[in-house]
Amino acid sequence: SAPPSGTQLDHVIQNIVKSHRETCQFLPEQLQTLRWKIFSQTEVEAYQRKSTEEMWQKCAHSITDAIQYVVEFAKRIEGFMELCQNDQIVLLKAGSLEVVLLRMCQAFNPGNNTVFFEGKYAGPELFHALGCEDLTSSVFEFSHGMCSLRLSEPELALFSAMVLISSDRMWLQERYKVEKLQTDIQLALKHVLQRNRHDTVLAKLPLKVMSLRSLCGRHAEKLRIFCLTHPLVAHSIFPPLYKELFTLESEHSA
Amino acid sequence: ESKSHQKVTLLQLLLGHQNGAKGN
Questions:
Q1: Mean pLDDT of successive 10-residue segments in chain A (254 residues)?
Q2: Closest partner residue to B15 among A88, A173, A245, by Cβ?
Q3: Looking at residue B3, what is its pLDDT?
């Protein structure tokens, strides 16, 4: 089909930026004013003394809250709700955590390597009890890298939409529809980056997409190991939506 | 293929699909 006109691209941009803004869990300007709130050493040690189960529960709740905002983001992207129900679910199951990780860069302070968590800014050491030091530091490094791209809010919104509406996800039934939507979003993002004289970033985005997929794969693997090593509690401590999205079906129904 | 997603009821509810999967 014909590529979108300038007016159509502007419409895509407006819709996605508005959708992002309306579904941000925390507005960037609010987070900016909270940067001085950092966990004290005593508070960090209290988190470090928590059990692995309690810390996993806290992080799963945090992720699940953030994902609900991503679902709202998806619903507001024009064309998403016109996809078949299977494909809406496939895209959210595969991409919602990726968008949460992308959005995390807005809640990240690269100056002191901290992220907003449970009301204050926390460094990676606060998450020690999870038993996932390697994954935690990779997530922090990813946020640091995203911050160094210095994406504007509209650029981040469009990149998030592009990550979510990925036509290469497995099990899509109407892949051509997802492809068309993704192409329009890609063109819109390119348009905004060029307009902002920021188009050198374009070449760096595919690497970020690969990092996101790798991080989500590693999260799934860590969760699988947690469920195997804590079989009695694993199914009672996680929010139902988290279980639905991330645990294997056999585990979910167990 | 679609069978693997038919149990995702919470996500369906969040998406506003009260009646579950229909022929997808």
A1: 84 98 94 96 98 97 98 98 96 97 97 97 98 98 97 97 97 97 96 90 96 98 95 89 81 43
A2: A88
A3: 45
At A232 the pLDDT is 83
* Per-residue pLDDT, A252: 44
Is the Cβ–Cβ distance between A239 and A60 less than 8 Å? yes
Q: Shortest CB distance from A85 goes to which of B1, B4, B22?
A: B22
Give the pLDDT confidence of A142-171 residue by residue, as tens digits. 999 999 999 999 999 999 999 999 999 999
Beta-carbon count within 10 A of A254 CB? 11
In A, which residues are within 8 Å of B11 by CB distance?
71, 89, 92-93, 241, 244-245
Residues of chain B found within 8 Å of residue A81, distances taken between Cβ atoms = 15
CB-defined contacts A:B, below 8 A: 52
Cβ-proximal residues to A240 (8 Å cutoff; 6+ apart), any chain: B10
Q: Are A134 and A97 in contact (CB under 8 A)?
A: no
Tell me the two tokens of residue A128. Answer: 């020690």
What is the per-residue pLDDT for A248? 62
Contacts of A106 (CB under 8 A, 6+ apart): A24, A26, A28, A31, A156
A-facing residues of B in 2-21 (CB < 8 A) are 2, 4-5, 7-12, 14-17, 21
Give the residue carrying structure tokens 């064309």: A79
Give the per-residue pLDDT at A207: 97
Residues A52, A57, A58, A64: what is their CA dihedral angle, to the nearest 10 degrees? 140
Whether the Cβ atoms of residue A148 and residue A77 lie closer than 8 Å to each other: no
Q: Are residues A13 and A191 in contact, defined by beta-carbon separation less than 8 angstroms? A: yes
Contact B9 A244 (CB under 8 A): yes
